[in-house]
Amino acid sequence: MGRWFPAGRADLPYFCVVGSPIAHSKSPAIHGAFAAQLDVQLRYERVEVEAGQLAAAVAEFQAYGGRGMNVTLPLKEEAWQLAASRTPRAAQAGAANTLWFTDDGAVAVDNTDGAGLVRDLEVNHGVSLAGRRILLLGAGGAARGVVPALLDAAPASLAISNRTPARAAALCASFVDRAVLEVVPWGQAPETRPDVIINGTTLSLHGELPPLPATAVAAGSVCYDMMYANEATPFVAWARGLGARLALDGLGMLVEQAAESFARWHDLRPATAPVIAALRGAR
Length: 283
Known about the structure:
The protein has helices spanning 27-38, 54-64, 76-82, 88-93, 113-124, 141-152, 165-173, 234-241, 251-266, 273-282, and strands at residues 14-19, 43-48, 68-71, 85-86, 98-101, 107-110, 133-137, 157-161, 182-183, 196-199, 222-225, 246-248. With 283 residues, it is an alpha/beta fold. It has 2 domains: 14-111 and 257-282, Leucine Dehydrogenase, chain A, domain 1 (Rossmann fold, 3-Layer(aba) Sandwich); 114-249, Rossmann fold (3-Layer(aba) Sandwich), CATH 3.40.50. Strand 5 (98-101) and strand 6 form a beta hairpin.
């Protein structure tokens, strides 16, 4: 018996999501729904893998015959470092959430988070990001992963705020060839009120709220938490209380990024709307 995966070989094409904590992940339900929709045979499971253990877990996963792995917190930057090849959007992001093996057995990665976030906002909620002022909270793997897609959406500006200012500055510097990104001190808002505030921190997982002034939110604001829960996250509840036009959690992003991963692995694109509706109805 392996540490993370059984001994022997998988009985069906095997996929998983890894991270810590992982018990809350809805990814098995999402990929199961996609598979049923498109008549794809697979097994997809949650696997608890702690920080610093991903390389060993991926080696065991490959020996077991695993086909594709989704990577969530806190392992996205580890996955990026592990890769022999990266898609252009993963290369730009410096973090990865989707992993598979090439024909010669090398590790390849993609980052579908940004595409999932932008599609959820623009397609599912009708929020055009073009010409908007965006404030992104956080500078870890989750936040890094969405910056390329946010820039592709052509916002008027993108500001980054992080508890550790040096990480925010480093993230901004890594995209200097594409745009000038602003660093905003933690707990403050840009001088000009943002149109869209995206919480890319893990604070919601701990029931905590990013320290933002109430003046950052107005009646026309769109506030988006990349985390999700059965109840409104602290960030979503805070934004609703301040009268934001939209206060959204990351469930739609989760489904949309999963669809990108599914298409990468199976060369089939599932419909996301019925899966999002089913998950929201089950909460």
